[in-house]
Amino acid sequence: MSTVKRNDSLSSSLFMASDPVYFCQLDGKGKAINSKKDKDKIEATVAHPCWIHLDYSKSATRDWINHTDLLPPLAKKALIGKDPTPKEMRFDTGMLVILKGVNVTANRYPDPIITFRFYIMDKLIISSCNKKIDAIDIIEQNLKKGVGPVDVADWLIQISDALTDKANLSFDHIHNRVIALEDTVLNDHVLSHREIGFVRRELIILRRLLVPSQDIIVKLATERVSWIDDNDRQHLHDTSTRLSHCVSDIDNGLLRISSIMELINSLLAESMNKRIYFMTLFTLIFNPITFLTSLLGVNLAGIPFSDSGWAFGIFAIVLMFVGVVLIFWLKFKKWL
């Protein structure tokens, strides 16, 4: 991988032009010290690492990322690029991570999808996004309460947990809709496949987000870097296990959606069978009447032997013969 020149001092005119969305230095006890007003005077250390969150949609931020010595070239491209594919890349100075997640919103479906990118090293975290991320707000609130990350590894754990919590909450909302669909169908109300298709699509999209994230977190837990210890690896494994359970729940939700669709098809088939049954009853009732009225109203004038007194009887016998032939033919075809 590419190497970069380590620059532990954050005092730079380029950095000041980047206008970070959020900046803090961790005090090692769960709180944030300093602010982005003092960022040009701060020196990041292992005991007190810095976290910079940037909005890469700003031209000044993109200029700083492209010119800073803190990031390798591939990391620069990933932090401001358009490729949202989740990934984890190891460099000599740190790791680049791209994760997918959701912002949980009230009364809006599906929940908006977000892509969170960050480059993490022992003294510094540089994250970027072009929209608001709920997980970032959670970390900020934790720092204000004094229960935030104490170092870069703890930050990695807490941001992974926050993204996982939001994904689980999003699934809970979809799961409630699945339950509502089941209750509706069990009450013999037929739903449109369109409504069920929307819920099924949301489950599939959420699954496509979580599976790569789970793989990446497992990979992070196996990375042998100095700033991730065994306890941190265990926490990351626990997070990946939670994601695995969520994926299993999504798979169960998809099976339940399939069962709902089968039940709806059964209800439609049962309703159709009832209609056909009633139509058959009406046919059985009116067919003899129709036959008699047709037979008695037949006009024999013009047919052979119409002057004979046996013409009507012969005509009736011919009709019976045709009926018997049709019955034997249907039995031969096994339709009766």
What does this entry look like structurally?
This protein is α+β, with helices and mostly antiparallel strands and 336 residues long. It has eight helices and seven strands; from the N terminus they run αβββααββββααααα. Helix 6 packs antiparallel against helix 7. The longest helix has 67 residues. The radius of gyration is 36 Å and the shape is rod-shaped. The termini are far apart.
Q: Count of DSSP E strands?
A: 7
N to C succession of SSEs: HEEEHHEEEEHHHHH
Strand order of the largest sheet: 2-1-3-7-6-5-4
Percent range of helical residues: 55-70%
Average of the residue pLDDT scores = 83
Q: What general outline do the C-alpha atoms trace?
A: rod-shaped
Task: Compute the number of helices.
Answer: 8
Oligomer: single chain
Structural class: alpha+beta
Mind summarizing the main beta sheet? 7 strands, mixed
Strand content: 5-15%
How big is the Rg?
36 Å
Tell me the span between the first and last alpha carbons: 77 Å
